[in-house]
Fold this sequence. Notes:
The complex is a heterotrimer.
Chain A: H1 4-33, H2 41-59, H3 62-86, H4 91-110, H5 135-140, H6 144-162, H7 164-174, H8 176-181, H9 186-212, H10 224-234, H11 239-261, H12 268-272, H13 274-287, H14 290-296
Helix pairs in contact in A: 1-6, 1-9, 1-10, 1-11, 2-3, 2-4, 2-9, 2-10, 3-4, 3-9, 6-7, 6-11, 10-11, 10-13, 11-13
Chain B: E1 9-17, E2 22-31, E3 36-40, H1 47-54, E4 62-67, E5 70-72, H2 77-83, E6 85-88, H3 100-107, H4 114-127, H5 143-155, E7 161-165, H6 173-188, E8 192-197, H7 200-206, E9 209-214, E10 217-222, H8 229-237, E11 255-264, E12 274-282, E13 286-290, H9 297-305, E14 316-318, E15 321-322, H10 328-333, E16 336-339, H11 354-358, E17 368-369, E18 372-373, H12 375-388, H13 405-418, E19 423-427, H14 435-450, E20 454-458, H15 462-468, E21 471-476, E22 479-480, E23 484-485, H16 491-498
Parallel strand pairs in B: 3-8, 3-9, 6-7, 7-8, 13-20, 13-21, 16-19, 19-20
Antiparallel strand pairs in B: 1-2, 1-4, 4-5, 9-10, 11-12, 11-14, 14-15, 17-18, 21-22, 21-23
Helix pairs in contact in B: 3-4, 12-13, 13-14
Chain C: H1 4-23, H2 28-37, H3 43-68, H4 76-94, H5 102-128, H6 132-152, H7 187-204, H8 206-216, H9 218-224, H10 228-255, H11 266-276, H12 281-305, H13 311-338
Amino acid sequence: MLSVDLLTAILVATLGAGTPLALAAIGELVSERAGVLNLGVEGMMLVGAAVGFVATAESESMVIGILAGMGAGIGLSLIFAFLTLTCLANQVATGLALTIFGTGTSALIGAGYTGTVLVVRDSFSIPVLSDIPVLGALLFSLEPMTYLSLVIIGGVWFFLFRSRSGLVLRGVGDAPAAAHATGMSVILIRYMAVMFGGAMAGLAGAFLSVIYTPVWVENMTAGRGWIAVALVVFASWQPLRVLAGAYLFGGVTILQFHIQGASLGIPSQFLSMLPYLATIVVLVIMSSDAMRVKLNTPASLAKPFRAEG
Amino acid sequence: MELAMPARLELFGICKAYPAVVANDDISLSIDAGSIHAILGENGAGKSTLMKIIYGVVASDSGTISWNGEVVKITTPAEARELGIGMVFQHFSLFPALTVLDNLVLSLGANKSRQLIAETALEFANQYGLKIELDRQVYSLSVGEQQRVEILRCLMQNPKLLIMDEPTSVLTIESIRELFVLLRSLAADGCSIVYVSHKLHEVCELCDTATVLRRGRVVASVDPRTETSASLAKHMIGDLVVSVRTASPSTSWDERFGVHNLHRSAAGDFSITLININLNIRGGEILGIAGVAGNGQAELLEALSGEWIAPKSDIITIDSIPVGLAGPASRRTLGLAYIPEERLGHGAVPLMTLAKNALLTGEKSKFINNGLIRFGVVEKFTWSCIEKFGVKSGTPTTEAQSLSGGNLQKFIVGRELLHEPNVIIAAQPTWGLDVGAAIAIRSALLEKRGSGVAILLISEDLDELFEICDSITVISAGRLSPIRPVNETSTEEIGYWMAGHLPQSGEIEPRPTHHDV
Amino acid sequence: MAAIAPLSAALLTVVGGAILFSSLGHNSVDAFRAFFVTPVSDLYGIGELSLKMAPILLCALGLAIGFRGNVWNIGAEGQLIVGAICGGGFALALGKIDGLWVIPAILLTGAIGGMAWASIAAVLRTRFNVNEILVTLMLTYIAGLLLSYLVYGPWRSPTGFNWPVSSDLAASARLPRLIPGTRLNLGIVMSIVFTGCAWLFLARSHLSYRMEVVGLAPRAARYAGFDEHKLVWTSLLIGGAAAGLAGAIEVSGTIGKLREVVSPGYGFAAIIVAYIGRLHPVGIFFASILMALFYVGGEQIKVTLGVPSAITGIFQGMLLFSLLMSDVLINYRLRWYHNRPIATKGNTHAVS
Lengths: 309, 517, 352
């Protein structure tokens, strides 16, 4: 039977595994709420991971590394924003190009660092409290980044549904022409939303390479960026449901490790397929009600906008 | 009085040209405080462009605007609102997924609290008798309610000038009456109103000044209270003779198109349930269906064209052949032609050439051989369509979207008619067209009627319906009214039905005696 | 006219590449020679180029047919892998059985495998309204894991020194080589024949016309009575078959066995090629040559300059970015004109 310790370990690991998904997905959610579909999440995460890792290795500071990863994500998202918002390029094609570009770029940046062990001078943990059994472990031995992700998601929820700026952002995604007519700067707001998406994807990537694994391997995000895109659909564009979805997927990932560890004779590859299969299943369940999807999807998603006049 | 007060808004020599068309050509006009000023003109006369220039949405190429006697530059809607100009758009500029209150908050500046905005909104709503639910999402409101939200939103900015762009095109007769009451009381409070319309009787009834535009120029400035609809129409469209009626009623043909007990449940919150639709059209007959937009026309058209498949075969018949279960292509082989309301994207593929658009409904014809397209034949067909129906500046390699609305519509109508149909369904075939194109299209339909084709015409334009139909019915909330021969009914009766007062079936309905609009 | 944007995109990419090389501390001229000239300066090199071009060309043609109809199959990589598994598996099962039918049967099995994999996305899109972008992508990851399982598990060669590879295919199951002294095989011929077929299909067939209408104006397609589901199916099946065929060609021709990695991202590169080629077979043909050059060039400078071959991916991304940007610069006026509101009736949101 599962011992309490094992269960705690699984729960803690689940939250850890869910954190990068939650971060990347909440960024994409904000971008999509403003009407921009950025399929380059995977690429932005990879570059964030590579830059974050290299910066940490060179500076021996996690904080610097993670900030660098975020910066890289923002940089990539700006390429996307320029092409789709200023040049009105097709968002789907540009997003794909961003992912391919990001994959190559991250491999180039990280090329000399495969196998490097990170030496870090600054790190976080909360002493004493984390020694409390179960709850202590669950609540206080988590990575600070997990707390941060909770704060960010709560903040996004508050921003979208309780602040005027969030209302403006939702308005832009709902009816950009009307937003323009009421004097909002549609393009500027979309730039900000896309950049937030880039920052979160970069953060998620840097978390993976600097804290979670912590090594650099080519293509290390292994489709997490795409799963994050699917999570936004799963969450019906609601921030709090993103969290639920991310932990669900984190759980699937961790469960797969534990089943592998239990050596039940199931080939590891089949277990590794689980998150991808789960993504498909989730999409089927969420999409089959076409009417509901239509109601939840931001009305202007992936449609280019140009101010008339 | 005139000596002391400068006009609230004056325009001098406003010009605006687009690549394809000069929308505004040297327009000057003057609007006094508290006046209800009509801007009258056909679709495409340049009314909307002019309003967008006043509201700062579009920049004019030249000309000046003066506000209360001072020359101003209005480059954004925000500046227009700052001055005290409010605008209610023809296609509402609301946020459908947000609540009414959210919509008000978004347009009323950042420094007011939600609470305050909600209170003010209810105050205004009470003052002008507008029924408003602040927590409803806008998409779930009826069109009339959405317009009320738009108006309320403008009123809360205390406008000195309110632009109403074609406000009645989507309203029932009752809502129109309520709107007029509201506008009059606003004007009495000193707010100037610019009333953009092409509906003559409304202008005569409501407005105290009218500026008539034609092809982007001011052609007349009149007092509509001293004019008649006919005299205004003459200003609007020039000296064209409008009547196209030539053929006399012919009754020698059998039923060619029938709909029997058609029911269709609404597909979601936004669609209408069709209830017990029955109609039949003989060859040589034009049946008109009047109605306010959104009363089931779209759903009915889908069912008739085959874009929605009926549950049973004999619900719809073409020349007595049951086709309820057949798709659009099979119905077309049996002689059905359909001219949809929306030209770009429905009746034609915007990014494809005219030749490829000619192919759109020619699947079962000689255009295709062993699965391969015979482009030579298609091109010949396209040319003949262009020539016979006077599609200006069109060749087989022209992209559909580069044609003007009228020419594209002529092309679509031509394409459908050249396939020698037995039954034609036409939805708003002349909507937004200039008079010449509209006449050409009505004449083409009448010519087909003369050769024994059955025609169903769905339109919001009562003038058009009374002009070319043999009989007329009304669709309201998914039901059809009784079908009346056109000379046994009146615009009053049809208008009364359109407002939702359909007679109960079987009941001998009292004719409304007096319903002026 | 249509070629201006792709050509200027290629030029922009070259300039971007020069900046990249010099920022990595290499002489751009040398790097460029190593990247673009050295690899194709002899017959063997040209053979290698054509070898890489064949699967890219096949996948890109299949995808372009779908993209024209707005079917976003971006999982050609997965369909290629499944094609390799099916074709390779069938070849392994045949063992040393010989006959003229063997190779066609292997290739057919590969194509069917690719179709089957793509049909999952087709079912989900047409029956459950699921976005095919995410599904085809997830299926790519799954296909990779499936292949990994097979070569680590049941199909692992007993004589392979524990490497994750299958046994070598029998000579009878190998595509014949075309030119002695190169590795060039029949695959390139098949891909060129396929280009011709695709050209005929896209230019003349009514089926392709219907698919295009569905992509450009779905309501017009419904109005015309075109069956959208059938056309989505057709797009995905054609794309899957082409990619599956490419996979079988890789295994039966180039590699000669199954191993953990059968494609260095040809399926993804094909997306870019389809775009650079303007979704037109002739354009795709030339774009696939350029893309194959990126691959051989990437390998070459890894050897001569020690630059990671990941640079190929950067070039791919830059190429597509440049194309999207060139498009805007060239079409700016045109597009601006077309975006003008046209008198169409009704506001889709407001009608309730």
